[in-house]
Amino acid sequence: MYWKRRKQRERDLERELRSHLELEAEERQDAYAARRALGNTTLIQEDVRAVWGWTLVEQLAQDLRHAARSMRHAPVFTAVALLSLALGIGANTAIFELLDAVRLRNLPVPNPQQLMRIQIRGGNPGMGISNDPYQLTYPLLDEVRGHQQAFSGLLAWNGGDTFRIGEGAGVHRVPGVLVNGDFFTTLALSPAAGRLFNREDDRIGCAAPGVVLGYGFWQSEFGGQSSAIGKRLIVDGHPFEVIGAAPAKFSGLEVGRDFDFALPICAQGILQSGTRSLRRTDVYWLAVLGRLKPGWTRTQASDHLQAISPGLLEATLPVGYSAKSVVGYRKLRLEAVPAANGISSLRGQYDTSLWLLLGITGLVLLIACSNLANLMVARSSARGREFAVRLALGASRIRLVRQALCESLVLAAAGGALGLAIARSLSAGITRFLGTEAAPLPLDLGFDWRVLAFSAGAAIGACVLFGLLPALRASRIDPGAAIKGGGRGLTADRERFSFQRFMVAAQVAFSLVLLVGALLFVRSFRNLVTLDPGFRERGILQANFDMSHAGLSPAAIKPFQRDFLEEIRSMPQVEAAATTTTFLIRNGMWSLGVRVGTTDGDSRFTWVSPGYFQLLETPLLAGRDFNAGDTETSPKVAIVNQTFARRYFGSVNPVGKVFRSRAEPNYPEAQYEIVAVVKDTRYFDLRWPTPPMSYAPASQYPSQGPWSNLYIRSSAPLAGVAAAIQRRLAESHPEITADFRVFQTQIDDSLIRERLMATLSGFFGVLAAILTTIGLYGVIAYMVVRRRNEIGIRMALGADQRKVLGMVLREAAVLFAIGGAAGVIGSLALTRAAGSLLFGLGPRDPVSFGAAVALLGAAAALGSYIPAWRASRLDPMTSLRCE
User: How many CB atoms lie within 10 A of CB 550?
Assistant: First the structure.
C-alpha cells in the first residue's frame, strides 16, 4: 500500500508540474516572437528546453498525431497519395511474393540446407526417354545408392502425373507421386497419422504396397480421421491400403506441384503390369536428392560423384542403342547441386519473367514516389507561412524536418498496409493466371519474414524517397521573407522549381522504359497469337483412350484400335478423326536418329492414321497421303516436312528417296521410302523453330501399347462431343477410360508466360504514363501559379496569349526531351534482358521505341496543355494585384 500511495503522489505531482509548464508556455508565446525578432536565439533555446521538456517519444507521438490530422484535412491529396503508394507497394510485394514461393523459400523439412540434388551435369543430350534431362534412371539410382559415401540417405520420386481414383461414377483424377522407401526417412518427416514408407515398403516386385495420403487429401476425402488408416484407395483400378498421412506443411519437393497420395516406386510394376520399365537403363524418370553427411560440403560431394561416375555408367550401359550413343553415355558425369528450396520447372520457365516484372513494378513505385515528392514540395510551399511562424516561435529546423518526415511515414505506413491487401489479391490472381484448367498451380503464398521485410523496406524506402527532400526544403524557409512575402512570385527565382523539374524528367524516363517494355511484350505476344502454326486449331478435341483394362492380347491391340477409330468416326457429331502417337504443342516429343545417304542426323517421329493431315488442314505439297495399302507387312513409308527435305535433300525432290532410322529399344532399325512432303508445322512449342519431322503410318508403329490418341474434329460444341463419346464408351466399352482436352485451349495454355508479360507490363506501362501525365500537369500548374506575377507582367508589356502558351509548353517540352532522352538510353540498356522472352522482334525494335515515345509524348502534351491554356487566359491586372 505504501508503494501504491507513493506512486500515486508522484503521478499527481507530475500532472501538476506539466499543467504549470503548459500555462507558463502559453503566457510566454509573445516573448518568443519578440526574442526571435531581436535575434536572441540562445534564450529561446533555453526556454524551449525548460518549458518543453518532453521526451523524444512524446514529441514523435505528437508529430504523428499532427500528421494524421493534416492528412485528414487534405482528403484529395491523401487519397491520391495512398492509392499511388498502395499500387506501387502492392505490385512489388505481389511479384516478390511469387519469387519467394518459386525460388527463395526453403522446403518445410529439418535442415533443408543439407539437401543436394544428384543430377547429370549438363543433362543427358537427348538420350533415351525423359521429361527432364537431369533425372536419373532406376538402375543408375541403384548404382549410386550402392557406391556413394557422401550422403546419409538418398530419396527419389517421380511426380507430375495424375491418376484415376475411385470406382464407377465416382472416378476422378488427382495428382500422385511415386517415391522410394527412403523418401520420408531422408527428409526426416513424421506422419500426421499412421506411418510413412520405409525401405521394406519399396522392393521390386512388391505384391501389396501401401499408400500414404497427402495431408490436404486426407482432410478433404477422409475428414482427417484416423479411421482412414487401413482403408482402401483405388488407383487406376488397383486397391492400395492406406498406411498413413503426410505432415501438414509438406506438399512435395516440386514447387508448383502438389500430391494427393504417394505410392512406392515398386507399385509401378502393378500399375503397368510388369517391372520391365524399372529395369530399363534408358528411361530417365526419377528426380534424386541426397542429404549430406556431417562434415561433407557440396563441392566435396560433387567431386565424389564425378569420381565414381565412370564405374556407375559402365554398370548401366543402355541396351539396343548404337555404338555412338553408348560412347556418349559413357561421357556423362554426375554432380550435386543445392536443393534446399526443392526443384521446379517453374524456375526455368518464369524466373526471368518474374525478375523483369519486379523491375517493372519497382519503376512504377519510383514514379509514384516522384509524384508524391512533387506534391509534398507543393504542400510545403503552400504551408511556407505556417513553417515560418513555427520557426519564429522557436521551433528548430530539425523539428520541422521530423514533422514533415512523420507525414511521409504516416502515408507510407498506410500505403504499405493497403499495399499488402492489394498484394494478396494480385498474387493470387497471377497464380490463377499461371495455372490452367487441367493443371492449376498450387503455390504456398503465405507471408513469411522475407515478404514482410520486403514490403516494409519498400514502404520505408518510399517514405525516404518522397519525404526527405521536401522536408529539407521546408526547413530552409526564411521566416522573415515568408511572413512578409506570402504568395509573391519572383521572376528570377526559378531555381525553386529545379527539384520538381528533375522529378518530372525522371518520371518521363521511367515511364518511357516501361512503355517500351510493354510494347515489346505486347507485340511479341501478338506475333505468337497471329502466327500460322501450319495446322487448324479450332474445333478439335485431343482424346486419350486407355484400353489397358480391356483384356486385349498384344496381337489384338492394333485390330481393336482400327475398329475403335471407325466407331468414333461413325458418330454423328464427329466430322473427322485420326490417330497419332504424339499430340502437337506441349504434349511430349519423340526423336529417332536417321541416316540419309552418308549424312547422319535426327528427326521427330510421329505415327498417324490416314486422314490426319486433312483433319488438321495441313496441306501435302507433293506426293500422296497414307492409305489402306500401307499395312504392317508392307514396305515402310514416310511423309516428311519441308525442313526435313531441305536439310537432307537440299533442292532435290525427296519423294521416292529413302532414309534409315537408327535402332532404339522397341524401335528396330528400318528403311523408309518418302511418299510425300507436307507443309512445315510447329511441333512442341510455337516459339521454337520447326524441326525435321517424319510421319509414318499408324499401322506400322513398332511399339503399340493398349492406348490410343485421337484428334477429333467437330463443328458442334466440343464439350457436347466429349460427353457423347463418354456415353458411347459407357454403353459399348465400359472398360475403356478417356481423357479429353480442347486443342485450342492447349495451345492457349502454352502461351501463358507471354500473355502474363503482355498483360502486366501493358497495365503498368499505362499506369506509369497516367502517373507521369498527372505529375507533369501538377508541376506545370504549380509553376504557373508561382509565376503568375511574371506572366501578368509579360502580358501587360504586350505578350499575347499565343506567346504565353508557347512559353509554358516549351517548359514542358524541355522536361519531356530531357526525360525522353534518358528513357531511351535506359531502355536500350535494360530491354536487353528481355530478349529471350521476345518472339518475332528484337529488344531494340524501332517500332516499339517510336510508338512508346509518341504515346508518352501525347500524354505529356495533354498533361501540360491544360495548365498552359489556363496561363494564357490570365487577366494581367488580377495577376499584378496578387503582388
Answer: 16
